Amino acid sequence: MLYRAMNTAASGMDAYIFNLDVIANNLANAGTTGFKRSRTDFEDLYYQYYRPPGSSDVNGNVLAEGIYAGSGVRVAAVQPDFTEGSLLQTGRQEDIAVEGKGFFQVQDSNGNFYYTRNGQFTRNANGTLVLASANRSLVLQPPITLQSDVTDLSISSDGVVSVLQSGNTAFQQVGNIQLTLFVNPEGLIHEGETLYSETPASGPAQTSTPGSLGYGLLRQSFLEASNTEPVKELVDLIKTQRNVEMNSQVVQASDQLLQLVSNLRRF
């Protein structure tokens, strides 16, 4: 019985220490553009029944309650929170935020597609809009290329990209930005760099024009901030710390009782 209590408490310590990793990542990315916080879901483990509910006593009467003991807790899932972060005005023409649902689609040099809420776009040497990244070039899809003589850039809420070129007085349309939705965005794989990739759990990518049914709108010269709420994360951090401490006290108490039982043989 005491060994089971120790194992049960140890499972609690292990689960909450894992939760600490999730909280730490949320706090570390509180300033990351387009970042989505995650939460840890828990579930209880197997129960050992000494008398299951509904069993009968010696007289044949059905007992309303049973006798059982649980064996602890484990992490069931880590669920991303895709609620929208606040929009911050930057004044930069290539910055784009999604107001509502949807992801930008980008492609790397190997032809792999990724999806992001980070709208920190810039121009590469060819004038093509790419996602700002520390390690690789990620081209916005469908590609938008701006000529070197562009003096002004306009991106409408429905994704129409228009430019004003030197010597012209009227804007000309050069492309359209589209958004992508998934039936289950929680099923996407986190790739780092605020990127996600498609999986069978997420369902196939569904791309359409911003402002279409179910799709968000674009806001030029804005960026979406991280949806991490530092105060809430700090509260969760304190609760997690207390849960680890309480489970460690159960381990200590079980150990002390085991020592007491062992010492009974001396008397």
Summarize the structure.
It is built from two helices and 20 strands. It is α+β, with helices and mostly antiparallel strands and 267 residues long. Strands 8-7-11-10-9 form a five-stranded antiparallel β-sheet, with no helix packed on it. A three-stranded antiparallel β-sheet has the order 12-13-14, with no helix packed on it.
Please give a structural write-up.
With 267 residues, the chain is an alpha+beta fold. It has two domains: 120 residues, no CATH class; 138 residues, no CATH class. Helix content is 23%, strand content 32%. The chain has two helices and 20 strands. The strands form eight sheets. The chain has a five-stranded antiparallel beta sheet, with no helix packed on it. Strands 12-13-14 form a three-stranded antiparallel beta sheet, with no helix packed on it. A two-stranded antiparallel ribbon has the order 1-4. It is elongated. The protein starts with a helix and ends with a helix.
Topology:
Blueprint: H1 2-28, E1 38-44, E2 47-51, E3 67-70, E4 73-80, E5 87-89, E6 96-99, E7 104-107, E8 113-116, E9 121-123, E10 129-131, E11 138-141, E12 150-155, E13 160-165, E14 172-176, E15 179-181, E16 189-192, E17 195-197, E18 206-208, E19 217-220, E20 222-224, H2 230-263
Antiparallel strand pairs: 1-4, 2-3, 5-20, 6-19, 7-8, 7-11, 9-10, 10-11, 12-13, 13-14, 15-18, 16-17
Helix pairs in contact: 1-2
